[in-house]
Structures are given as C-alpha cells and as structure tokens.
UniProtKB/TrEMBL annotation:
<dbReference type="GO" id="GO:0003700">
    <property type="term" value="F:DNA-binding transcription factor activity"/>
</dbReference>
<dbReference type="Pfam" id="PF00376">
    <property type="entry name" value="MerR"/>
</dbReference>
<dbReference type="InterPro" id="IPR009061">
    <property type="entry name" value="DNA-bd_dom_put_sf"/>
</dbReference>
<keyword id="KW-0238">DNA-binding</keyword>
<feature type="domain" description="HTH merR-type">
    <location>
        <begin position="1"/>
        <end position="70"/>
    </location>
</feature>
<dbReference type="GO" id="GO:0003677">
    <property type="term" value="F:DNA binding"/>
</dbReference>
<dbReference type="InterPro" id="IPR047057">
    <property type="entry name" value="MerR_fam"/>
</dbReference>
<dbReference type="InterPro" id="IPR000551">
    <property type="entry name" value="MerR-type_HTH_dom"/>
</dbReference>
<protein>
    <submittedName>
        <fullName>MerR family transcriptional regulator</fullName>
    </submittedName>
</protein>
Amino acid sequence: MLTIGQLAAYAGVTVRAVRHYHHLGLLPEPERDDSGYRRYSARAVVDLIKIRTLAGAGVPLSQIGRMLDAGPSGFAEQIQRIDDHLRTEIERLENSRKQIAQLAAGDGLVVPPEVAHYLDRLRQLGVAEPIVAGERDGWILMSARWPDDVREIIPAKLAYLDDPQHIRVYRILSDLIGLDPADTRNDALLVELADLMAAAAEQAAAAGDADPDEMQQDNLTFDLMDALAVESDPRVERLFGLIRERGWARWTRLDRMPQ
C-alpha cells in the first residue's frame, strides 16, 4: 500500500515522527516487501491518525499505547483521568498568571494588600526606597508566619504615620542610608533614632498596645527580622545596643530588658 513518506503525508506528520512512534512501540513497523520497501496498510493509517490526534490533544506518548489497546470503557476512563489532570494543571497555571499579574503591583506579590498599601504610604511620605524594601522584607517574614495577625495590626501601623515622631524615625533611617558608615554624623543620628524608638515603645506600652498572643509566644520571626536588619547594614548592631541601653530588648517588639 503506502510508503512511509506517503503514510506520513496522509496522516499529517513527519517521517521522523513515524519512526519515533515505531521506536516507542506505538506503531508497528512492517516488514520489507520483495523490493525492499516497507509498505503500510490502511490499518496503519488509521492507527497513526489516532496517535497524532491523541498526541495533539496533549496526551503523553507514554500513555497512548495503553489507550489504543483499551476497550471503549477503558479508553473513556483514561480520557477522564487525563482531563482531571489537565483541569488541575489549568487551575495551577491560572493561579500562576494571577501571581505574575501582581508583579505589576510590586509589593502585592509577596505581602498582603494591606501591607502593600502601608509600604506605598511610606513611599508617598518620601521614605528612601532601601528603607521601604527593608520594611517589606520584614513584613514578608511576618506575613508568612502570621497572615491573619498581620492584617489586624496594619491599621495601627497606618495610624502611626500621622505621628511626626514616627515619621522622624523614617526620615533618620533614610538619612542614614545616604551616609557612609564611617561618617561622623552616624552616631548622632543613631542616638536620636534610639531615643525616638525607646519613647515610642514606652508610649505603646503605656497605651496597652501589644502584639497578638501568637506573636508574643514566638521569637523565631523576630530573631530573623533582627538578623535581616543586621545583615543589611552593620550600623544596626550599634542601634540595637543603644536601644538596649534604654531598657528595650528589641526594636521589633515590646520586650523590656530583664531587670
């Protein structure tokens, strides 16, 4: 009947594809005739079209052989399994598309929308981008650990942005970013920063402000936030020391130094 070239052309595939299907055992390779050519039957054409159709629908080649050998019920069952897998994959890809779309929103990809709004407010206030980025990284750590608690404390954080003393903290941090670590002005700024942070901690403690219980009982995230700050700028070690001198064990949580 047909040569391999004619078979491939009729089924709409390449000769190379036909040979690949031979290699995988999906399409039997006929014996050579007396003239030395392999001749393909009408059944081979039908089988090749089935293989091409299933492969074009996304069925893995490793599964096509079993599907061709299965009866009607078995074929339908395997089709259903493939469809279920494709549905799951589509949902995964749709979620990935949503995440990729959030890249345009910047911070919204890695933190809750409430936190992204807070970070945008910092930018509107003129806070230096490296400081905003450091703040974002701290919120990433917190959001991964306590997503619900983070949403609860954001309103209070936003309210702080109406406090000139709180804004001054960010102004000093932004000024420090622009200074060489060896600049003599660093120490004065760090001292002022420690004073402001200690005063804010005293004010919050007096007002009864406290992190949710889940946060208070878990030190790991706060340890990571402190370490992240030190890794970002060695001057933070000096700041930590100044804050401890003022009676506070951390700058990220209301922890007083032991008496």
